[in-house]
């Protein structure tokens, strides 16, 4: 119950305004007083409304809570109360949110209570205006200032002055002269509204009668396309200018490529409408394609005509679908163009064909076969981009292949009109230097023993008479070059029949088959990655054509406790791009190595997180190896790149490499797996399977190079040309013959043909430095500083151009026999 409060009796105020009458004297003994003048009548001023000076306002820290009927009430939170212009606004201290607003025309003191916005408020302390405007009270508790009784000056009247007994009449106190700074509203005005539109997607208003290009052709570095020769009657030609959002990122060769593609697509270079971009890896074909599509989608050289294309289709390998989508987002963002990705999760192709939200569709080659009929619905597709088109190899019969060989010259003359081809040399001024090492590893005793056992088996004799068995035997020997232990794997049913393995495995000692240490390549890889991990902060990519080989390398990394990621044929396409991004963005402690299958991920991926790459085995098709090597030497790479190609010296690896260089027809036959018996002669097969266990390098011997194998680049091409005729003569005339038995003209024609075919291949290998590791190890033993031997060691170090690999080569247990190295630095 509420406590009882007695009533307070108040006397009514006099209404007549006269002074109260004098009281009669009660007693005669009352004190007598002197005569006084009557008081003057003065009317009290009307109560003035409480307004702070200049409407500056007062600010308080308060406690607030919602209305409640509880007996023991608690406060819900702290707040800030601003009293300005007769209105009080309550804000929460933690969030700054406005909790309520109401009228307040009376001064507030500590302990004062009021109700605003359905909340009970109790004033704690006052607050400085500066603290309120700065917002510091919403960041933490503010030290409370002692509250002062607010002054209440009357508008239009001079305030009453307090007069002290000893002061002069009318003298003002210091408190009355307090100056309050003026509140500047201009400093807190809201900024002007800005339209949320992109300047590159909204055309400014111009005179429609005068043709104006979409972008300024006079801007610095503006890329302007070629004008057509004619236009329809009544129409005008306008310049097509590439969007500066893209053109500012294009390099010189890319600007040239965009212009070439535009002219070909517009039919300005040839009768058809299309182009082939055959640039080497890393030249930015994706960015050039995106620039072309964006230009065609937004512009037309004919004024007041719709854009040239509305829908575009990009077809690529399944592993590159996400990469294409990411590239569009990188260069154009999400607001400019709609990109539709057709995959297992998103199969509503009508969103692209019937809708207007998507302009570009990205699909894999396999998925395209399923949806090709649905793409014909709706408005159709205006342009098709086929990425990695070289991987689409049509099945052809022998007659068709023969016809194609006969017509290739005419084909070259026709395609040259709409095909552009640039090499990686144009990137030399943009990318860091690259060093390529072709490493010839001497086989271990276990590998050599396994090799000889297979060549002495009945399977080898059958292979000489059967092309199919020969191809199967090639796959077996390639695995022996990687590691004899791979012959025991059960995952090789796709390339090697189990019957052949069952006939070969009993010939090989079980100790060799069960040990990965019998692999010369794996031993070298072990030393190399250990040196890279312990001496640098770089990361490495390891590429192989076989998943069983990747399994073996994975076990090696696990034994060394090195972190790694892996991408092969079993990796879902939806997860491949995330693996690549994780590898590129994380340090080596999270992902030091990236295991990559050359067949599944050797095309189109951007692995710039690594600066070193190892090709553990070699492929018959040189394009496969070149694609794999280009994964790290691309735009965005900041470190010098090192490429290592591992070969078994004298084994099948070296023979395959020789045929890559010589560009013989044997490679194509093995790639297609459809070689006929006429593709291989018995002598070619014997040479292919032969194990050369000599000390020297067979590849270097075939060059006929006279260098000392100390890593010096010499112009030996002329000397080799002079000796080539003598070598051919020795080969053609192994014994003395009668002059009547020799057809001189026929022999001379063969010599000229072989010499002409050999020189381009020879020139390619002469770009490498030739290094015999015996010279390196022999010269490194106690050579005095400044001596001739020390100078040779320095020359070899410059030739290798790789301190980490040089330290591996100097190790006594290193099994590298020969080295071909080439650097762009």
Automatic annotation (TrEMBL):
Domain Helicase C-terminal span(s) in chain numbering: 527-686
CDD domains, alphabetized: SF2_C_SNF (cd18793)
SUPFAM superfamilies recorded: P-loop containing nucleoside triphosphate hydrolases (SSF52540)
Region named Disordered: 1-29, 147-178
PROSITE patterns: HELICASE_ATP_BIND_1, HELICASE_CTER
Coiled-coil residue windows: none
Biased composition regions of type Basic and acidic residues, renumbered to the chain: 169-178
Compositional bias annotation for Low complexity: 1-11
Keyword Nucleotide-binding: yes
Gene3D superfamilies: P-loop containing nucleotide triphosphate hydrolases (3.40.50.300), SWI2/SNF2 ATPases, N-terminal domain (1.20.120.850), Tandem AAA-ATPase domain (3.40.50.10810)
Keyword flag DNA repair: no
Domain of life where this protein originates: Eukaryota
A GO MF term: DNA translocase activity
A single BP term in Gene Ontology: double-strand break repair via homologous recombination
InterPro entries reported in the protein's UniProt record: Helicase_ATP-bd, Helicase_C-like, P-loop_NTPase, SNF2-like_sf, SNF2/RAD54-like_C, SNF2_N, SNF2_RAD54_helicase_repair
Domain Helicase ATP-binding: 266-434
Assigned GO CC terms: nucleus
Record's keyword terms, sorted: ATP-binding, Hydrolase, Nucleotide-binding
Name used for this protein in its record: DNA repair and recombination protein RAD26
Organism in which the protein naturally occurs: Cochliobolus sativus
